[in-house]
Structures are given as C-alpha cells and as structure tokens.
C-alpha cells in the first residue's frame, strides 16, 4: 500500500531529468505521489550525458596516466626491463583518445539507462519531450513523437540545468573550438590544447589532458588558478601544473579565438597570440530558463536567468519548486539532488530541514584533488580571533611517502572556545574520499578531540586528518 502523506496534493510534474529531477521523482514516488518526469534528451540530463559522468570518467583515465608517468620513484621501468637504464625508444604508454571517449560515451549511456529503469520501477512516468509553464501549476508538454497535451499539477519541480556559456569572439565549432560537452567526439589527442578559463571546469580538463600527454596552456584572467578555492590549495595545484609542463598564463584574458588552416589562434587582451591545435572554452554556464514560461507562472529570476529559491527549494510561485544549476545555489550534482529531495519532502508534507550550504562538501577533480567543506580560508581571514587553523603536509605522512606523494595537505578550522570543527580542506590523491570524516564532523558538530580520538589506520592518508585534529587540542 502506498504511503501518501498528503492525498490532496499528489500529482507531481518534474521538468528535467538530471540529478535534481530524477532524485526528486524517486522521493515523490516513494511518498505515493503520481509522478511524471519530462526530459528532452535522456534521463540523467547533462550531468550524466555530457558533464559530470563523462568528465570524471576521463579524469579517472588521466589519474592512471599520472600514476604511470610518475612511477619511476617506485622502481617501475618501461622499455627494456633488463637494462638498468631503459631504452627511451622502447614501448611507451600512450592515451588512445578514441578508445577513451568511446568508453566514456558507453558509460554515460549505461548510466542514463540505469536511471530510466530505476524511475520506471519506482512508478515514475518518464516522458521524452519538452515542457513549458503556461500558467500557475499548468504545464504544456510536447513529446518527441509530436504528441501535445496540457497537465495540471499540484506540485511542479523545475530542474532544467544549464549549458556552456559561449562568447561571440570564440564561437565553438565542435571541431577545433570546443565546449566541454563537445570534447567526447575527438578521435585524437590534441597536440596543443588551450583551455580558456581557470575555474573548476577549466582546471579539471587542463589537468586531465596534460596527464594524457597533450601540451596544455591554461589561460587564467585571475592571479591564480581556481580563484574561488582555498588559496593554499590553489597554490599547490598551480605549482604541480607548472612542474608537469603546463603553460599557465596568469592575469591573461582571451580576447578572440579563431580557426586557422590547421588549428586555432588565441589572441590575448594584451596582444599576445597563442597558436594551438584546439581550444576549450570553459567560461561558465547559463541556466536553461529562457522560453520556459517562468513569467507566466510567476516565477522570479535573477538578471542572470537563475531561478530564485529558498531553503526548501520553493520559487516565488506557489506550488512550483526548482533544483539544480538553473537555480542560484551551488552548481553541484550533489546539491541539485538534495534540493530535489528537499522540495518533494516539503511539498508532500514529510519531515524536512532547509538546505545547509555550510555543510556541503565539494571537490575539484584535478591531480592532486582539492576537497573542501564548511569554513574557508577567506572566512578565517575575516574571523574575530575565536577561530584557529592548522595545516598538516602530506609529505610527512608514511603512506604518502610509500606512494611517492609529495604535494598535498590537510587543513582544519575549529572554534577555539568550544573545539568544534568548522571546516576543512584536503589536497591530495582521493581527496574526494578523504573529506568525508571532516564533513561528518562539521555536520554533527564534533570537536577536534572527538575526531582526534577516532582510530585511523596506520599507515593511511586519513591519519593526517586525526593528526591535524590532535594539533588543535587545547589543554584543560
């Protein structure tokens, strides 16, 4: 028997099948609602088909290439293994980009199918098509086969995502000038890839293609890469980038990107010209809210087009919620999914707490990775003195030495008076996994002493987390 918490409000229409859409659909179905999800492409949305899943699959291959290329300190040799000094003309490891991208597309398609099957098993009606708001709680649907109809809903969730921002002076052509959604059709590794934009997306792809063996130039308009991340972490990453041969052009702005006979020409604002084989434009994204009918439904947006929502994902229109990159909240798949769940819990009367951005962990999938949660270095600089911080370098960690990890650290922030853990940063291999105990500590308001008294495996990289906590102990 279905458990409908509020039988009077049980018809849910969800526009968009990305993480915010499909996760909200599963929650609504679990709570007994009649759920219809409309997605113009395939379930999973751009997060699965052209964004998160493909990029992190590419990065997984790049991580292995880094491990291989930097394995000489561990005694690994390539070429003629019988020689103390291997023949440089011997067999070399190289990236087969056609095979890599084929695997990426296959995995993305498999994940999209798994999501669709999961929705159907849960009782969600998943429809391929487009949808537009034509009034309060009224949706006009046009299916892929041309069928048109109108739906009345008790609750509507907008999870329409975003698309790459394009500049009129650097128009993508899917061949040489590319957005991050177009990379997965390349058959050969670019000889020289210029990445314009040093935010998370730009840094991740620059790191990945550098690891795969391409010459990479990273154009950053700011003083450093990853201007929105922890300063110490960004400094470590930029140092690693340069040590691996990447050309980091700081305080440089790309003015134009033009096709040439055999590649591209990137012209910087100061007149410098950078010839290359390919250019990736990673200059932000734009929400897919144009033409959605938001004004007719009374949904307010920012000048950027992002939908305004509150802590439980409500828009300014009664009964209409929004989640994911189309909103002005953090553009993370995990946040989109949580926004969608919260929306359905709230709309259908289940127990719910507002979204707490302070507890959201995020990760930059470069090599090394950078993971953060809670309180930041910027917050620390503006603190009144009751906040303390400690940084433990991974270079002193026994497991890190075994793995020849020389770059990275663990940083913790805590309140001096209470010892409560406010946030942290991890820079190193698998930082995305290592951040979890710090996230748990922030979420549950644990103290540095409680974290320090937790047993860490020896040797392990996580031992540096408990070491940092011990260093923040204040004697009674």
Automatic annotation (TrEMBL):
- Keywords of the record: FAD, Flavoprotein
FAD/NAD(P)-binding domain residues are 11-340
- Sections of the chain in a coiled coil: none
Name the needed cofactors: FAD
Q: Where is the Pyridine nucleotide-disulphide oxidoreductase dimerisation domain?
A: 361-469
InterPro entries assigned: FAD/NAD-bd_sf, FAD/NAD-binding_dom, FAD/NAD-linked_Rdtase_dimer_sf, Pyr_nuc-diS_OxRdtase, Pyr_nucl-diS_OxRdtase_dimer
Q: Does the keyword Flavoprotein apply?
A: yes
Query: What's the superkingdom here?
Result: Bacteria
Q: Name one Pfam family in it.
A: Pyr_redox_dim
Q: Family assignment?
A: Belongs to the class-I pyridine nucleotide-disulfide oxidoreductase family.
State the name under which the record lists this protein: NAD(P)H-quinone dehydrogenase
Q: List the top taxonomic levels of the source.
A: Bacteria, Bacillati, Actinomycetota, Actinomycetes, Micrococcales
């Amino acid at each position: 028997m279905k458990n409908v918490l509020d039988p009077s409000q049980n018809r849910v229409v969800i526009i968009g099948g990305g993480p915010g859409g499909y996760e909200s659909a599963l929650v609504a179905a679990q709570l007994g609602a009649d759920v219809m999800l409309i997605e113009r492409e395939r379930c999973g949305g751009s997060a699965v088909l052209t964004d998160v899943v493909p990029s992190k699959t590419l990065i997984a291959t790049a991580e292995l290439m880094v491990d291989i290329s930097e394995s000489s300190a561990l005694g690994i040799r390539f070429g003629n293994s019988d020689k103390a000094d291997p023949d440089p003309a011997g067999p070399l490891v190289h990236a087969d980009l056609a095979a890599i991208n084929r695997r990426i597309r296959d995995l993305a398609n498999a994940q999209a199918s798994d999501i669709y099957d999961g929705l159907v098993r849960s009782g969600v009606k998943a429809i391929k098509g487009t949808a537009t708001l034509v009034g309060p709680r009224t949706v006009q649907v046009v299916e892929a086969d041309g069928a048109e109809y109108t739906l009345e809903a008790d609750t509507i969730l907008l999870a329409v995502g975003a698309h790459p921002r394009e500049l009129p002076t650097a128009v993508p052509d899917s061949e040489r000038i590319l957005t991050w959604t177009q990379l997965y059709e390349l058959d050969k590794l670019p000889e020289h890839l210029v990445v314009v934009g040093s935010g998370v997306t730009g840094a991740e792809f620059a790191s990945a293609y550098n690891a795969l063996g391409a010459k990479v130039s990273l154009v950053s308009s700011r003083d450093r890469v990853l201007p929105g991340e922890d300063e110490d972490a960004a400094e470590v990453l930029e140092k690693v980038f340069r040590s691996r041969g990447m050309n980091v052009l700081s305080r440089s702005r790309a003015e134009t990107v033009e096709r040439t006979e055999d590649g591209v020409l990137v012209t910087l604002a100061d007149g410098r010209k950078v010839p290359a084989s390919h250019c990736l434009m990673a200059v932000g994204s734009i929400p897919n809210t144009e033409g959605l009918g938001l004004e007719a439904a009374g949904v307010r947006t920012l000048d950027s087009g992002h939908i305004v929502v509150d802590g439980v994902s409500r828009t300014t229109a009664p009964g209409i919620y929004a989640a994911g990159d189309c909103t002005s909240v953090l553009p993370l798949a995990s946040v989109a999914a949580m926004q969608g769940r919260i929306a359905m819990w709230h709309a259908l009367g289940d127990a719910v707490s507002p979204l707490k951005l302070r507890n959201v962990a995020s990760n930059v999938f470069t090599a090394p990775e950078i993971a953060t949660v809670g309180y930041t270095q910027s917050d620390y600089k503006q603190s009144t003195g009751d906040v303390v911080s400690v940084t433990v370098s991974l270079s002193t960690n026994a497991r890190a030495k075994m793995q020849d990890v020389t770059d990275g650290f663990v940083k913790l922030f805590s309140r001096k008076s209470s010892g409560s853990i406010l946030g942290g940063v991890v820079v190193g291999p698998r930082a995305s996994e290592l951040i979890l105990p710090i996230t748990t500590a922030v979420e549950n308001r644990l103290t540095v002493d409680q974290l320090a008294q937790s047993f860490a495996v020896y040797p392990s990289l996580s031992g540096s987390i408990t070491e940092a906590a011990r260093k923040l102990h204040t004697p009674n």
